[in-house]
C-alpha cells in the first residue's frame, strides 16, 4: 500500500520582527533570528608606545631585540665570571696560603686542624652564600631588563 502524499503546505506565518533585516520570502522555512547581530569593525589603530615597540622587537627577533637580549646575556655572564673569580680566590687561595705560611696550616681549633675546618666545613656556607648572591643579582639583572622593556614612553 502506498503512503499518502501530503498536499501543499500552508505558508508559514511571517515571524520577521522589526529587528529583522530585509524582507522575507513567503514560505521560507527558516525564520530570521530574533536578535540583531552586531558587527564591529577593528579598533582604530593608535601609534605604538615605546614599550610595545621594544616588545615587538624582542618577539620578532630583529637586530634591536637581539642586541637587547645580548646585553642581558652579557650582564649575566659578567656576574657569573665575577662570582666565579671570588670562589676561585676564596677557596683556591687557601692551599696557597697554607703552602706559603705553613704555620697557619698547623693551627688547631677545638682539636681540628685549621685547613680541615676551612676546606671541609666553612667552604659550604661560603658556597651557599655565593650561590644566594648570584641568584639575587641575576634576578636583579632580569628585573632591570624587564623594566627597560616595559618602561613607558617619556
Number of strands: 2
**Quaternary structure classification:** single chain
Rg over CA atoms, rounded to whole Å, is 39 Å
- Helix/strand structural class: mainly alpha
* Largest pleated sheet: 2 strands, antiparallel
From the N-terminal CA to the C-terminal CA, the straight-line distance is: 88 Å
Strand fraction = under 5%
**What is the overall shape?**
elongated
Runs with pLDDT <50, length 5+? none
Tally of helical segments: 4
Helix and strand run: HHHEEH
Helix content: 55-70%
Care to describe what's here?
- This protein is mainly α.
- Helix content is 58%, strand content 3%.
- The protein is built from four helices and two strands.
- It has helices at 50-59, 63-100, 102-105, 114-150; strands spanning 108-109, 112-113.
- A two-stranded antiparallel ribbon has the order 1-2.
- Helix 1 crosses helix 2 (63-100) and helix 2 runs antiparallel to helix 4 (114-150).
